[in-house]
Amino acid sequence: MAAEVGASFSGMEFANAYGIAAAGSTITKTAYYGYATFFHADGSVLEGAGSSKGRSIIAKTLQSEPVSAQLDRADAEVQRQMRLGQPNFFLQFDRRGINRSPTSSR
Length: 106
Prior knowledge:
Helix content: 10-25%
Strand content: 5-15%
Strand order of the largest sheet: 1-2
Number of helices: 3
Radius of gyration: 16 Å
Order of helices and strands: EHEHH
Number of strands: 2
Shape: globular
Structural class: mainly alpha
C-alpha cells in the first residue's frame, strides 16, 4: 500500500527471495524443498540448488530449461510429519497423481 501512495523504498535488494512453486501452482511453501534434490531437464543433478541457499541457481537455470525437484531427502517419518503439518503442500501433487508415497492420505 505504501508504494501505491508514492513511498520511496531503500535496501530492497536485500529483501528479495525467489519462492519455489511447482509449475501451475500457487503454493510457495519453500521450506519443504529443503528435503529436495533439484535436477536439470536432462535428469542430471543441478549442483548448488536448494531452498535456503541456491534459489538463484534455480532461477537462473529456469531461464533456459525446466527444473525438476524430488523430495527424496526425507525419511518416511519426516514425510508423515510434513503431510500433517502442511497438507495443502502435497494436495497439489496428490491431485495430479505425482509422488504417491506410502505416507499419502489416499
